[in-house]
Automatic annotation (TrEMBL):
Keyword Transmembrane helix (UniProt): yes
Classification via InterPro entries: Calret/calnex, Calret/calnex_CS, Calreticulin/calnexin_P_dom_sf, ConA-like_dom_sf
Listed Pfam families: Calreticulin
Compositional bias ranges of the Basic and acidic residues kind: 102-126
Disulfide cross-links: 18-52
Signal peptide: none
Record's keyword annotation contains Transmembrane helix: yes
Family under the similarity heading: Belongs to the calreticulin family.
Any Gene Ontology CC annotation: endoplasmic reticulum membrane
Localization in the cell: Endoplasmic reticulum membrane
Name used for this protein in its record: Calnexin
Length: 166
């Protein structure tokens, strides 16, 4: 069971050139002044997408005090390899979820690491293959003549209007 769950939605209706849609969980400091919040306000967790020009990132940063040195350190998650550009350009809603588990949590002693475990009581057809691929490529399939590869999936309606309450 996660100790902390943060979930939020982001939608860039007009795209974005430079800015972030990340959230910061602020650090509890004696001089925390929310009326004068700025980019240098101390935070403990930073999470979410960020973009400037062609550079896109997905932040997950934990900022904490090093118990030996007394200095604050930032621990960054590994860089996301997925192309993030569509988050900022597709005009769709994206759901971001961060789960932080209890650091003392561990697998039970009887944990079974096998990828699949056969259920001896399950009834399946005699020719059932548990390892068969979900999809099988049809080698004889061909594209119809005149198929438009570059046709957009969705076609904009020039007569469509946004509802007045949007």
């Amino acid at each position: 069971m996660p100790e902390l769950v943060i979930q939020y939605e982001v939608k860039f209706e007009n795209g974005m050139e430079c800015g972030g849609a990340y959230i910061k969980l602020l650090s509890a400091t004696p001089n925390l002044d929310l009326l004068n919040f700025h980019d240098k306000t101390p935070y403990t967790i930073m999470f979410g997408p960020d973009k400037c020009g062609m550079d896109t990132k997905f932040h997950f940063i934990i900022r904490h005090k090093n118990m030996k040195t007394g200095e604050y350190e930032e621990k960054h998650a590994k860089k996301v390899t997925k192309d993030l550009e569509s988050i900022f350009t597709d005009k769709r809603t994206h759901l971001f979820t961060l789960e932080i588990d209890d650091p003392k949590d561990k697998k039970p002693d009887d944990w079974d690491e096998r990828e699949t475990i056969v259920d001896e009581k399950a009834t399946k057809p005699d020719d059932w293959d548990e390892n068969a691929p979900e999809f099988i490529t049809d080698e004889s399939a061909v594209k119809p003549s005149g198929w438009l590869d570059d046709e957009p999936e969705l076609i904009p309606d020039p007569n469509a209007e946004k509802p007045h309450d949007w």
